[in-house]
Amino acid sequence: MKSLLLAGALLLAASAVQAAPSALQRFQTQAEAQASASLAAAGVDLKGQPVEIRATVGGDGRLNGAHVLRSTGSRDTDAAIEAAVKKVSVADAPPVLAGNSVVLTLGDSAGGQAGAR
């Protein structure tokens, strides 16, 4: 009986662990979409060039301290990207991300990494 209860508890724990990546992926997808929309509204065209940005997630889901990791070669474009990312605020950000950094990828090869760092 105890082993049956233990097996059930392990299955529940495994389900909770599997749910976490989907919340992180959802955050990443929403943050990248918002940043891309903000860039488009500002008239910034990445011309298909992938750009990685690191930012810190606030407790309210807002991205702070955005920094381009790999320059586009244009200081103006890099500054516009950082400004666009700072406008991103994702509702219901996973609590594990609060105060931690995420790396987002914008442009042609979008699909960055949302995870606590």
Explained architecture:
The chain has 117 residues and is an alpha+beta fold. Helices cover 44% and strands 16% of the residues. It has 2 helices and 3 strands, in the order αββαβ. The chain has a 3-stranded antiparallel sheet, with helices on one face. A hairpin with a 5-residue loop joins strand 1 and strand 2. The longest helix has 40 residues, at 2-41. 21% of the residues are buried. Mean pLDDT is 80; it is low at 1-17.
List the helices and strands and how they pair.
Blueprint: H1 2-41, E1 51-57, E2 63-68, H2 75-86, E3 101-106
Antiparallel strand pairs: 1-2, 1-3
Strand content: 15-25%
Query: How many separate structural domains?
Result: 1
Q: Total number of β-strand segments?
A: 3
Q: pLDDT average, as an integer?
A: 80
The sequence of SSEs as H and E is HEEHE
Helical/strand content category: alpha+beta
Low-confidence stretches: 1-17
| CATH architecture descriptor name | 2-Layer Sandwich
Strands side by side in the biggest sheet:
2-1-3
Question: How much helicity do the residues have?
Answer: 40-55%
Question: Kindly, what is the distance between the CA atoms of the first and last residues, rounded to a whole number of angstroms?
Answer: 40 Å
Which CATH class applies here? Alpha Beta
Largest sheet: 3 strands, antiparallel
CATH topology: Fusion Protein Consisting Of Minor Coat Protein, Glycine Rich Linker, Tola, And A His Tag, Chain: A, Domain 2
Shape: globular
